[in-house]
Amino acid sequence: MFYKKSGLPEQGEIVICTVTKILYHSVFAKLDEYNHLDGMIHISEISPGRIRNIRDYVKEGKRIVCKVLRVNLDKKQVDLSIRRVNTMQAINRNNEYKQEQKAEKLLEFIGKQLKKDLKTIYTEAGFKIIETYGSLYEGFQRFVLDDEVIKDLKLDKTLEKTLLEIVKDKIKAPEVEISGIITLTSEATDGVEVIKKILIKAQKGEIKITYISAPKYKISVTASDYKTAEGILKNSQEEIIASIEKAGGTGKFKRQ
């Protein structure tokens, strides 16, 4: 990646590294997101249990996810650990890194449309986006959801227009999913059919309803943000409960 963080990582930070050297009792790796910064992983921090051969776990040139254990400010020395990174942390961090790589490629493409190199487009827009939103990808997602927020960056108008057009064309709006459990009961002779018709009518668009076990059903809502999703879920469960009560039954909802 072109963009590198300045300074040193914080203790406990999860970082992306590339293995550069393997010794008998330790591994050296460069921190990919930091300028000219290397770290060391002691053999005891590679994997739990006894390790006979470090090369069974890491190889030169391999990208790995590590946790920062200690940072020596004077020597700019970083102690790292592989074994203290759990599977979900590794997956999430790798995904974030890949997303940022894609976002940088998109920024480079935007620059080419304006006949500007990557360094120039970073200076004019990229660094401002990272400073405001934490990363290019997060900034691009915000622009997709609300293109008005880009005005706060005070970019050149031609750059702003081109960036918005390309980002909105290439970046999919982020989605969140929330859910809850609705319990429906009916003493009517055709109670099962009544509940079935109510749920079929309620299941539309972003709303998905799945059977758990009578009398419980799961309502899931997918939307671009939590506020919108919560509003849809609230309206849906209220309509379902109103319908079952109108039919002489009862209903209650619990948010998961």
Task: Describe the structure in your own words.
There is one protein chain. This protein is of the alpha+beta class. It has three domains: 14-85, Nucleic acid-binding proteins (OB fold (Dihydrolipoamide Acetyltransferase, E2P), Beta Barrel), CATH 2.40.50.140; 88-170, Translation initiation factor 2, subunit 1, domain 2 (DNA polymerase, domain 1, Orthogonal Bundle), CATH 1.10.150.190; 176-255, EIF_2_alpha (Alpha-Beta Plaits, 2-Layer Sandwich). The protein is 39% helix and 26% strand. The chain has six helices and nine strands, in the order βββββααααβαββαβ. The protein has helices at 87-113, 118-133, 136-145, 157-170, 191-202, 226-246; strands at residues 14-22, 26-31, 38-42, 63-72, 77-81, 176-185, 207-213, 216-223, 250-255. A five-stranded mixed β-barrel has the order 1-2-3-5-4. Strands 7-8-6-9 form a four-stranded antiparallel β-sheet, with helices on one face. α5 (191-202) runs antiparallel to α6. The mean pLDDT is 91.
